[in-house]
Write a structure and sequence with these properties.
This protein is an alpha+beta fold. 60% of the residues lie in helices and 7% in strands. β5 and β6 form a beta hairpin. The longest helix is centred in the C-terminal third of the chain and has 34 residues.
């Protein structure tokens, strides 16, 4: 069992510690399984089957290798044929298949590029799901909504794996019923059903419900449900996470700034949004961004001047104002010296 292999990827999801850098690539795929979520979801639209995602490190993790032998036993293969199975194998060997070499044929180069694209998509999925160990198995609905992480040690025999799967099918049935409720009734009834689904999903897996989040926002543009602040924040955090993977700090900053302008947010929520915009700029840019950092901190304070966080925000604001004053003084002194040198 290999532990914590995705911790670095998952770190990017934590909003308070964004470090904008390109996400590493991983490989996946087997001829007996879908290579990625996209192909599995496309198949699920036709088959109406739920998804079963296997994350392994075959060849680098002994349990992954033995576990997949169990999965490939006829009894297990027959059972998982009622799902759209996905295999993501994150190994150095798989990564090497994505390398495009000048000596390769055009066909081989095209295949390597195709695998690289799959790896990029799977790396995002792996970071969002953040498995602590391999092998890991996840159950998703046919729509791509998280259901469960099967409780496995990795050394189960066929009977043990099938029991774990059967136990979690109860959760799948419950989720399917909640999804069905989101498609019936009046707009606010649908919003209430979506909220039930959102609350039933663990917070770290709610990004997989982004289409439901967008639907709720569209159904309740006047915020009659009183829930739109939660949905607008969830959508913004999803967009910021995607900006992280695209190494696009400005997009993340703009997302938080635009969020702070939403009328359905509380003062404290707007304050946090402006603060997050400033924080990302602090972590991803240089001294040229000082005026905007100061502006966002000022906006954060003004959004909720009586909040418990204002004292800390003011402390940060004073620090950056002082830093900017020192920089301006240094630049002015340097310019004066240059002028004097030119007159000699």
């Amino acid at each position: 069992m290999k532990k914590n292999i995705f911790r670095k990827l998952a770190a990017g999801i934590i909003m308070s510690s964004l470090a904008f850098a390109a996400a590493p690539l991983f490989a996946s795929g087997s001829e007996d399984f879908h290579a990625d979520m996209d192909s599995a979801l496309a198949a699920a639209k036709k088959s109406s089957k739920a998804l079963l995602i296997f994350i392994t490190q075959e060849g680098e993790d002994q349990l992954s290798e033995s576990f997949m032998k169990t999965v490939n036993e006829p009894e297990v293969l027959n059972r998982i044929s009622s799902y759209e199975p996905v295999l993501m194998d994150f190994t150095q060997k798989s990564f090497e298949k994505t390398v495009v070499r000048d000596t390769d044929s055009a066909e081989e180069q095209a295949k390597a590029k195709e695998l690289a694209d799959i790896m990029q998509k799977n790396s995002r999925f792996a970071a969002l799901i953040n498995p602590e160990f391999t092998p890991a198995v996840y159950l998703f609905s046919k729509e791509g909504y998280y259901v469960s992480h099967l409780v496995l040690k990795g050394d189960e025999n066929a009977a043990g794996f099938l029991k774990a799967l059967s136990d979690d099918e109860v959760k799948l049935n419950a989720l399917n019923q909640m999804v069905a409720k989101t498609k019936a009734g009046k707009p606010l009834e649908k919003v209430a059903a979506i909220d039930e689904l959102l609350e039933a999903t663990q917070p770290e897996y709610r990004f997989f419900l982004i289409d439901m989040v967008n639907t709720a926002i569209g159904l309740d543009k006047k915020n009659k449900s009183g829930l739109m602040n939660k949905y607008l924040i969830t959508r913004a955090e999803y967009d910021v996470t995607m900006a992280y993977y695209d190494n696009n700090a400005p997009a993340a900053v703009n997302t938080y700034v635009n969020l702070a302008k939403e009328k359905f947010l509380s003062g404290e929520e707007k304050q946090r949004s402006y603060y997050m915009a400033a924080l990302i700029m602090i972590k991803s840019s240089g001294a040229e961004s000082l005026p905007m950092i100061i502006a966002y901190l000022e906006k954060a304070i003004a959004a909720a001047p009586a909040s418990a966080d204002v004292a800390k925000l003011k402390e940060n604001l004073d620090y950056f104002k002082d830093y900017q004053a020192k920089m301006n003084a240094a630049q002015a002194a340097g310019g004066k010296q240059d002028s004097q040198d030119g007159n000699k």
